[in-house]
Amino acid sequence: MIEDRVLLHCRPVLVLKDRELEFMRLVCTECTYKQIADRMYLSPRTIDGYRDALFEKLNVRTRVGLAMFAVRTGIVHVASLPASDVWDEKQATPDRRERRAARLAGR
Q: What is the pLDDT of residues 8-49, one digit of tens each?
């Protein structure tokens, strides 16, 4: 849909390609860049290229910046994310939970 591709964000008109929009939606999940590459049937280096091009095009520096842009412009609606893509403390590996508990205990 064309309205999905044209975004107004501090610029006259910003056009994102369909694959860039797909990448932006996947960035907002808990998937790693490797998993995003697998889902999009692309190489990790191509995904790095998408990421770097979007960093430049959108004037952001991090994955969080990409995700915030996607939410602010309506590319992604947080309520529409599948539950499996939303991070849950219960899904954390024991090692991650133990590291987090140790870090918090050290404060």
A: 454 545 788 999 999 999 999 989 999 999 999 999 999 999
Question: Using one digit for the tens of pLDDT, what is the confidence trace for 50-101?
Answer: 999 999 999 999 999 999 999 998 898 877 655 555 445 444 455 666 767 7
Residue 74's CATH number: 1.10.10.10
Question: Domain containing 71: what range?
Answer: 2-105
DSSP letter at 86 equals: S
Taking the C-alpha atoms of residue 19 and residue 36, their distance in angstroms, rounded to an integer, is 12
For the chain, how many structural domains are there in total? 1
Dihedral sign for Cα 58, 62, 66, 71, please: negative
Q: 3-class SS at 8?
A: coil
Question: What's the sign of the alpha-carbon dihedral 79, 76, 69, 3?
Answer: negative
Whose tokens are 């770097």? That residue is 52
pTM of the predicted model as reported, rounded to 2 decimal places? 0.63
DSSP state of 45: H
